[in-house]
Structure prediction request, 77 residues.
Amino acid sequence: MGYAELIKKLQALPEDKQAEVFDFVEFLSARVAASKESKEEEWSESQFSKFSMKQAMRGMEDDPVTYSRDDLREVWR
Prediction:
């Protein structure tokens, strides 16, 4: 598959799926970079966990907190 075909298929995807592809490419890029830096084939559990959390929380830094006291299951006194 050439780049032109890849780009064509990517553009045909819905925007949310394009974002998933982008996230996966970022994951692979980071994995290759980490592998080159550490000369290891696999990520350690802590490296993967840190990257995974970073990707899961991406874009949420500026989201307002929408929870109120009524959302709590237990109230500490």
Summary: The chain has a mean pLDDT of 82. Residues 15-38 form the longest helix (24 residues).
